[in-house]
Write a structure and sequence with these properties.
There is one protein chain. This protein is 44% helix and 16% strand. It has 265 residues and is of the alpha/beta class. β6, α4 and β7 (136-142) form a beta-alpha-beta unit. The radius of gyration is 18 Å and the shape is globular. The mean pLDDT is 97. Bound molecules: NADP nicotinamide-adenine-dinucleotide phosphate. Residues 25-27, 50, 113, 142-143, 164, 192-198, 201, 216, 218, 233-238, 241, 244-245 line the site of NADP nicotinamide-adenine-dinucleotide phosphate.
């Protein structure tokens, strides 16, 4: 991937693939309005777009990337295997369908959207075949807890590069065992719903920290994830917020801010 615009940072996956630290979540961004918002995000400098077969918007993501005029390799595209497509043959078919909808020959990251312990071994084998065939530059999982991860680490040959999990300060303590295992195994943690779906943006502690840094509480939450080394994928249906959510590279939370946020749960 070429240089990220502005001061954005990136993480490097275990196989050397570089992934932007902040991306656009696209759940609910569909049809024409979705395409406009994704395009606006690319214009604002986003270089990571998080999609999924389940979001019914891979076609819109592909269109927005092509309309942006950016080279394909400048944008990091994630999609995810639907729950109904677990199993070896089904997963192989599903990735081809996703690529067809995206209008791309390769995605950057392909994730198992939710674990299905009974089919996990064969589904992961399919993910490995997808990776070997070059249909995804990296493969990973989502919503995997310690037990799910241990199973895939035991049975698989390729380690997941990423585990995308719900993550924000109020559930940090609860997720700590999963995060610790990921870090120990070199698996990048990607925080979904990093704004907790907007549910506690008026929290007094967040407001105090945001006020001191002259930023919004949403920016504090995204910055918290970035400083932990997580990838964060906030979503908004408003262009101004989409822009602001990427603007988190011009301030730094103190160690004390980080510790207080970590203890919010
Ligand atoms: N792997 C999985 O199973 C999974 C599950 C859930 C989500 N995800 C991914 O993670 C992405 C993000 O998670 P999410 O969509 O659940 O929630 P989120 O990003 O935590 O929060 C989105 C909500 O926050 C509001 N918001 C966004 N920016 C804001 C700002 N600057 N100020 C105030 N409010 C703001 C949005 O409202 P407005 O639209 O009105 O701005 C929206 O209601 C998803 O889109 C999806 O890509 C993955």
């Amino acid at each position: 991937m070429s240089e990220l615009p502005g001061k954005q940072s990136a993480v490097t996956l275990a196989n050397g693939v570089v992934m932007p630290a902040v991306g656009l979540g696209t759940w609910t961004l569909r049809r024409e309005r979705g395409a406009e918002l994704i395009r606006a995000a690319l214009d604002a400098g986003y270089r990571l777009i998080d999609s999924a077969a389940m979001y019914d918007n891979e076609d819109v993501v592909g269109q927005a990337v092509r309309a942006s005029g950016l080279a394909r390799e400048e944008v990091f595209i994630t999609s995810k295997l639907d729950n109904s497509d677990h199993g070896y043959e089904r997963a192989l078919r599903a990735v081809d369908e996703s690529l067809r909808r995206l209008g791309m020959e390769q995605m950057d990251l392909y994730l198992i959207h939710w674990p299905q312990p009974r089919k996990q071994e064969e589904t992961w084998r399919a993910m490995e075949a997808i990776y070997a065939a070059g249909k995804a530059r990296a493969i990973g999982v989502s919503n995997f807890d310690v037990r799910d991860l241990e199973a895939v680490l035991r049975s698989g040959e390729v380690k997941p590069a990423v585990n995308q999990i719900e993550l924000h300060p109020r559930i940090y303590a609860r997720e700590k065992p999963t995060i610790d295992l990921c870090q120990q195994e070199g698996i990048v943690v990607e925080a979904y719903s990093p704004l907790a779906k907007g549910r506690y943006l008026d929290d007094p502690l967040l407001r105090e920290i945001a006020g001191r840094h002259g930023v919004s509480t949403a920016q504090v939450l995204i910055r918290w994830a970035v400083q932990h080394g997580f990838v964060a994928i906030p979503r908004s249906s408003k262009v101004e917020r989409i822009r602001a959510n990427l603007d988190v590279f011009g301030f730094e939370l103190t160690d004390e801010d980080m510790a207080r946020l970590d203890a919010m749960g």
